[in-house]
Design brief:
The chain is of the alpha/beta class. It has 13 helices and ten strands. It has two domains: 242 residues, Type I PLP-dependent aspartate aminotransferase-like (Major domain) (Aspartate Aminotransferase, domain 2), CATH 3.40.640; 121 residues, Aspartate Aminotransferase, domain 1, CATH 3.90.1150. A seven-stranded mixed sheet has the order 1-7-6-5-4-2-3, sandwiched between helices. The chain has a three-stranded antiparallel sheet with strand order 8-9-10. It binds 4'-deoxy-4'-aminopyridoxal-5'-phosphate (PMP).
Length: 379
């Protein structure tokens, strides 16, 4: 029940990767033999699969090692342009993934000015507040589509629509929505979008940065690494063919199955909430359920330490409190803190997330067992 940290790989994805490892050997950028040609063909097929899911052109898809790298390239990659044009103001939110927050924090030590917008108790940032911060020297607005801890959908449609005719770049971290909110992403207006394949049952270590062309011109993003010309120099380094193939396959499957998956995910959420209601535990849901995706539940179980609950149930349940990237040591979730939730309630909050491969009955059974433990350790 921790799909938001990483989903299991789809067997069909794995098969496509094994085939690539066995039969598409070689460097996709080798021009001197057939092996390179064959590897290049499957990489370009995968690029088309990603492009089709997102409804962009394949020459707007740049493979990276995942969303952390995509976010870094999208933000740091604009630095030279920003300095040349004296546009050094960035707007983002206090609930972004650390790969956005730490990057803008670094830039703020380099002469950039950063406005961080906090959400209210609903878990959503106010689009008007975000947009009211736009100035003549604003370089970039970066807002995530779906928050990884709460599952709350942010107003990126409204923000993107407002920014379309402004001289400001808009970046969306779509790591938690890619392959899930398919129509919604297709309808967004953005310049740059990031995701990781492993959140949609693809392999870990691969993802993409989408750079949308404006009158044939890409956003003026420069690589943050020096090296070769792979991925048009946006992300130098040998293209990992089998990972790229897996990423493409995961996108293809998501495109075919997202409609069916949506119903399954909703059924699981309803069943989990019914289980909670029946259990007699006192609970509240963090974030406004109206804006929550159907695959995440962030819950506060009154009087139950989330740390104690996780330790007591870890034999049969994989849940979390906060994002995996910050969970090496316990500190209260910065996302829930930014929403204004009381520290004691944050300490009693857990995140449960699931996906298309989750079996509803098994999830309910495990959740019932978890709630029995919760009642035992409640104080
Ligand atoms: N952004 C969001 C919203 C995420 O949930 C994650 C993964 N937790 C990332 C970025 C980073 O993804 P990765 O670790 O695959 O680079």
């Amino acid at each position: 029940m921790d799909y938001n940290a990483s989903a299991p790989i789809d067997e069909r994805v794995l098969d496509s990767m094994v085939d690539a490892y066995k039969n598409k050997i070689g460097n996709a950028d080798s021009r001197t033999h057939e092996f390179g040609e064959r590897a290049r063909t499957v990489v370009e097929d995968a690029r088309k699969q990603v492009a089709s899911l997102l409804d962009v052109n394949s020459d707007e898809v740049f493979f990276t090692s995942g969303a952390t790298e995509s976010n870094n390239i999208a933000i740091q990659g604009l630095r030279e342009y920003a300095e040349r044009n004296n546009k050094k103001h960035i707007i983002t939110t206090a609930i972004e993934h650390k790969s956005v927050l730490e990057t803008v924090k670094y830039l703020s030590t380099q002469g950039f000015e950063v406005d961080l917008i906090s959400p209210d108790i609903t878990g959503r940032v106010d689009q008007d507040e975000v947009l009211s911060k736009v100035r003549s020297d604003t370089l970039l607005v970066s807002v995530m589509h779906v928050n990884n801890e709460t599952g709350i959908i942010q107003p990126v449609k409204e923000i993107g629509d407002f920014l379309t005719d402004k001289d400001v770049f808009f970046h969306v971290d779509a790591t938690q929505s890619c392959g899930k909110l398919v129509e919604e992403i297709r309808a967004l207006n953005y310049n740059m979008l990031s995701f990781s394949a492993h959140k949609l049952m693809g392999p870990q270590g691969i993802g993409a940065l989408i750079l949308k062309r404006d009158k044939f011109k890409l956003p003026p993003v420069k690589s943050v690494l020096f090296g070769g010309q792979q991925e048009h120099g946006i992300r130098p380094g040998t293209v990992p063919v089998a990972l790229v193939v897996g990423c493409g396959k995961a996108c293809e499957i998501a495109e075919l199955e997202y409609g069916k998956n949506k119903t399954h995910l909703e059924e699981i959420k309803n069943a989990l909430i019914q289980t909670l209601d029946k259990s007699g535990v006192e609970y509240s849901i963090n974030g406004d359920p109206e804006f929550c995706v159907s695959s995440t539940l962030n819950l506060c179980i009154k009087g139950v330490s989330s740390e104690a609950l996780m330790i007591s149930t870890k034999q049969f349940c994989g849940i979390s409190n906060g994002s995996a990237c910050t969970s090496k040591s316990y500190s209260p979730s910065y996302v829930l803190s930014a929403m204004g939730i009381d520290k004691n309630l944050i300490e009693a909050s857990i995140r449960i997330s699931w996906g298309p491969m989750t079996d509803k009955d098994e999830a309910v059974k495990n959740f019932e067992d978890l709630l029995i433990v919760a009642k035992q350790i409640a104080n």
